[in-house]
Amino acid sequence: MSTNERATRALKEILQKPGNDVCADCGALGRWKEISVACSNPGWGSCSLGVFICLDCSGIHRNIPEISKVKSLRLSHWEDQEVQFMAENGNELMKAKYEADVPVYYYKPTHKDCQVLREQWIRAKYERKEFSKPGKSLTYESETREGTLMKRGRDNGQFLNRRFVLSEREGNLKYYTKYDAKEPKAVIKVDTINATFQPEKIGNPNGLQITYLKDYSTRNIFVYHDSGKEIVDWFNSIRAVQLQYLRVAFPGATDAELVPKLTRNFVKEGYMEKTGPRQTEGFKKRWFTLDQRRLMYFKDPLDAFAKGEVFLGNNDNHYSASAGLPPGTHCNGAWQYGITIETPDRSFLFTCETESDQLDWLKHFKNVMNTQMSPQDYTMEALLKHRH
Fold it and tell me: Which of 9, 200, 348, 387 lies most in the core, judged by the most C-beta atoms within 10 Å?
């Protein structure tokens, strides 16, 4: 038996240990259980850190060669001492070391998250060792965070430098159009903020969408920073301030109950066509964002304000979603895959470009409508009805 055959066999055995069958960094399920010539997606290992990782995360590890030495489990030559190191360590043991004290508010990315989130998580763990020692002071936890971000202009679409100030004591995020301006352009309460990375939509790998409520209307601002670390630090700082705010607002709640109320990814986004309330107007293409129970629609994905929104309540309260359009609907658009949403007040008609898109939207609408409403949901429903 050759040296590499022996190493491959040993690595296969090490992979059977608990925790080694998923990526140590993003949790992606390993498709490397069978390390064979037929395997088209070999797993990877960092023989200097002692962890097993997926293909995507291995690319990030390669960018920090002074910390992580990456090898393919199937294609690389493994020295006996490297295999031994993997056997002595592995994902569970290294998680206990490098993730010993991750703050509850810190967003741990999954394989579905964008590159900048995953890269900064990996660098924070292994390069900066932020979570290895309990009690270490972290940048996200300073009472005030101040700096400049490139912000997209609402009217002209140009990105310009704007000063942002996040205050834990005041529980808000402010931004200023001029660096030395006395009065902020906007004061955003942290309990109304959602922040989600949108690199493709914004056209920048570090693009962050900040959504908040202004006079009961949803407002979007789009920002980025050239430094991946800086934008992810802002993101986790917002989450830290939000958690602090919620702890005060809900003193009886546990952190486990509060963390899901921090920033969240949208359920689904994409184009559909819709018609107006009389359902005699033509169908027009709009960008839709489903955020929890709110289906918002925009003329353009980067619009500051939604043109309108639909609240999706519970099935028991006369909300429903079904495939198709009512008989006799005049469908002028090119898209033929219809969806009808019924609310207690009216019906909304949409069309999708493809059947798979239609089925995906319907799945998400039905999931939302099958979920029991919270007290906050009832408040939001009442506010939106009041607006209309």
Answer: 348
Q: State how far the Cα of 302 lies from the Cα of 306, in Å rounded to an integer.
A: 10
Across the strands, what pairs with 177?
Answer: none
Q: Quick one: pLDDT at residue 16?
A: 86
Instruction: Using a cut of 0.70, tell me whether the model's pTM lies above it.
Output: yes
Structure tokens at 221: 């601002």
List Cβ neighbours of 39 (8 Å cut-off, separation of 6 or more).
31, 32, 74
Residue with the larger pLDDT of the pair 185 and 7: 185
